[in-house]
Amino acid sequence: MNWRKKKARKIAWERIQILFELAMEEGKKGNFERARRYVEHILNLSTKYKVRLPREMKMHICKRCHWILIPGKTSQVRLKKGKVVIKCLNCGAYKRYPYKK
Ligand SMILES: [Zn+2]
């Protein structure tokens, strides 16, 4: 990978982190549509620059409807057989992750 691409990815990653924080903030305030726009931005950047989103971020994003997932607000979190099961309260999609302490 050349230098320019590396730099572009770094900038994309920085923007993703800022957008994620903004999305979480809006989600906590109940502005879910605004949060969704931030999430869509994140997903676009991630695809365009091939930036892998960390697990912590993915757990807060519904891949189906692009809602920000906030436990007790827009998502339901359950522990089941050593797995974290996250349900999106907007579209009903489930996400499963192995439980990690
Ligand atoms: Zn959803």
Distance between the termini: 35 Å
Number of helices: 3
Structural Rg: 14 Å
Number of domains: 1
Most strands sheet: 3 strands, antiparallel
Shape call: globular
What fraction, in percent, of the residue positions are helical?
Answer: 40-55%
Bound molecules: zinc ion
DSSP strand tally = 3
Explain what you see:
The chain has one domain (3-98). The protein is 48% helix and 17% strand. It has helices at 3-29, 32-48, 55-58; strands at residues 75-80, 83-88, 94-98. The protein has a three-stranded antiparallel sheet, with no helix packed on it. Helix 1 (3-29) runs antiparallel to helix 2 (32-48). The longest helix is centred in the N-terminal third of the chain and has 27 residues, at 3-29. The radius of gyration is 14 Å and the shape is globular. It binds zinc ion (ZN). Zinc ion is lined by residues 62, 64-65, 67, 88, 90-91, 93.
Reconstruct the topology from this structure.
Layout: H1 3-29, H2 32-48, H3 55-58, E1 75-80, E2 83-88, E3 94-98
Antiparallel strand pairs: 1-2, 2-3
Helix pairs in contact: 1-2
Bound molecules: zinc ion.
Keywords:
binds zinc ion, three-stranded antiparallel β-sheet, 3 strands, 3 helices
In short:
The protein has helices at about 5-30, 30-50, 55-60; strands spanning about 75-80, 85-90, 95-100. It has about 100 residues and is of the alpha+beta class.
